[in-house]
């Protein structure tokens, strides 16, 4: 099932009911980022406002989908849909601000992507060509290096080694802090910062080299 338009949002008939269960804390709040556009609609969504939840979805679904496409292009939309269903189901147990919510959503998506990858690897019928193609970066992507939100740039990032690609997507595309990325991928903040820096330098070199070749 793919989540491609607002009309495809998960059914929310019990949103007000689940938000009433907010006694269990899933995350530890940290100071909110200044003028975070997610803050106001998230606050209303946590009070059961379904229109506000739609705003939250519109803000987070595109970067979530781009991140998942780096992990697995073929199943990204299905995994995104499953992620949002989980969000709706457990929204009443969430407590925190926009930074914690953003990190929670991407953590859910990451876990589902990992599970899907393991399930696919266990199936011997998976064509090898599909796996190889996922990590291929066509030459046209260099022109989109400075516009990370384009399809080409996503593919270019996907050409990086898996761990580096994931860190770049979470840091640059998802907009998570170094500390939040570190918590999600299970690495030290310093390791994340160094890997992201090296990856961006590598992408910049690739961009310049391809631009020079015309």
Automatic annotation (TrEMBL):
<dbReference type="InterPro" id="IPR007627">
    <property type="entry name" value="RNA_pol_sigma70_r2"/>
</dbReference>
<feature type="domain" description="RNA polymerase sigma-70 region 2">
    <location>
        <begin position="60"/>
        <end position="121"/>
    </location>
</feature>
<comment type="similarity">
    <text>Belongs to the sigma-70 factor family. ECF subfamily.</text>
</comment>
<dbReference type="GO" id="GO:0006352">
    <property type="term" value="P:DNA-templated transcription initiation"/>
</dbReference>
<dbReference type="InterPro" id="IPR013249">
    <property type="entry name" value="RNA_pol_sigma70_r4_t2"/>
</dbReference>
<dbReference type="GO" id="GO:0003677">
    <property type="term" value="F:DNA binding"/>
</dbReference>
<protein>
    <submittedName>
        <fullName>Sigma-70 family RNA polymerase sigma factor</fullName>
    </submittedName>
</protein>
<keyword id="KW-0731">Sigma factor</keyword>
<dbReference type="Pfam" id="PF04542">
    <property type="entry name" value="Sigma70_r2"/>
</dbReference>
<dbReference type="InterPro" id="IPR013324">
    <property type="entry name" value="RNA_pol_sigma_r3/r4-like"/>
</dbReference>
<keyword id="KW-0804">Transcription</keyword>
<dbReference type="InterPro" id="IPR014284">
    <property type="entry name" value="RNA_pol_sigma-70_dom"/>
</dbReference>
<feature type="domain" description="RNA polymerase sigma factor 70 region 4 type 2">
    <location>
        <begin position="152"/>
        <end position="203"/>
    </location>
</feature>
<dbReference type="InterPro" id="IPR036388">
    <property type="entry name" value="WH-like_DNA-bd_sf"/>
</dbReference>
<dbReference type="GO" id="GO:0016987">
    <property type="term" value="F:sigma factor activity"/>
</dbReference>
<dbReference type="InterPro" id="IPR039425">
    <property type="entry name" value="RNA_pol_sigma-70-like"/>
</dbReference>
<keyword id="KW-0805">Transcription regulation</keyword>
<dbReference type="InterPro" id="IPR013325">
    <property type="entry name" value="RNA_pol_sigma_r2"/>
</dbReference>
<dbReference type="Pfam" id="PF08281">
    <property type="entry name" value="Sigma70_r4_2"/>
</dbReference>
């Amino acid at each position: 099932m793919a989540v491609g338009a607002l009309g495809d949002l998960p059914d929310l008939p019990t949103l007000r009911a689940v938000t009433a269960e907010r006694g269990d804390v899933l995350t530890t709040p940290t100071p909110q980022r200044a003028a975070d556009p997610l803050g106001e609609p998230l606050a209303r969504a946590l009070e059961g406002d379904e229109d506000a939840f739609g705003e939250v979805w519109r803000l987070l679904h595109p970067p979530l989908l781009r991140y998942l496409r780096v992990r697995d292009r073929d199943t990204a939309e299905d995994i995104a849909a499953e992620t949002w269903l989980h969000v709706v189901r457990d929204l009443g147990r969430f407590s925190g601000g926009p930074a914690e919510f953003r990190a929670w959503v991407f953590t859910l998506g990451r876990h589902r992507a990992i599970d899907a990858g393991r399930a696919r690897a266990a199936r011997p019928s998976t064509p090898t060509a599909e796996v190889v193609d996922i990590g291929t970066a066509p030459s046209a992507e260099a022109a989109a290096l400075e516009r990370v939100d384009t399809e080409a740039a996503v593919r270019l990032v996907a050409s990086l080694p898996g761990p580096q690609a994931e860190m770049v997507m979470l840091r640059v595309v998802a907009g998570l802090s170094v500390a939040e990325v570190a918590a999600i991928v299970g690495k030290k903040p310093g390791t994340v910062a160094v890997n992201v820096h090296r990856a961006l330098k590598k992408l910049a070199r690739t961009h310049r080299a391809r631009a020079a070749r015309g």
